[in-house]
Amino acid sequence: MAVKILLTGTIHVGKTALLNALETAELPNVLTIPEVAREILSKNPELEKDPNLQDILFTEQVRREKVVTSNDSIAICDRGVLDIVAHSKLFNHEIKPEWLQWLRTYDLTFLLNKDDVPFSGENRAFSDPGRDWIQFRNTLDDNIKLVLTENNLRYQQLSGSIESRLSYLTSRIRETPVLRESYERRVERI
Fold first, then answer.
1. How confident is the model over 22-32, as pLDDT tens digits?
2. 165, exposed or middle or buried, with CB in 10 Å at 0-12, 13-18, 19+?
3. Within 10 A of 161 (CB to CB), how many other CB atoms are there?
4. Domain 3-189 belongs to what topology?
5. pTM of the model as a whole
6. Are 24 and 127 in contact (CB under 8 A)?
């Protein structure tokens, strides 16, 4: 049985840094899904203005999640459908029922605390340099929390340095049945 973990949070809170650190932690059966929006928009920046962007992101996010959860593994997502819903709220775009249904497919959700990472709003590599990035960051954080609350989704706020977040998350991952069984199989082989 696969386990799906979501790392969520507003911009510049350390999601990708934490995912990269997890990739080097040498945990068996752990697969990662990098941030879909970042990958798609870096290859196709013109999509940022496309009214169907959230649909495109949803389709690709779900496709990737299905691929990595097709076996007994732990999948860790750098952002997920929750972030698509929160961004849609932020920009007053339609939120599709299937997006809300997909929110329930995450076994563990970790919201990274924005207050742990200093942010000046400068040097953002986005196509809208005139935007107030501090306000955007705060509003997106509020929207993520709102989506979690409105959909009665359980989550845990993850605070502290990258190292302390990694330590805590690694210990939680090791507690999952999929990984425990993997360690037990390793022990049996020795």
1. 988 878 888 99
2. buried
3. 11
4. Rossmann fold (3.40.50)
5. 0.88
6. no
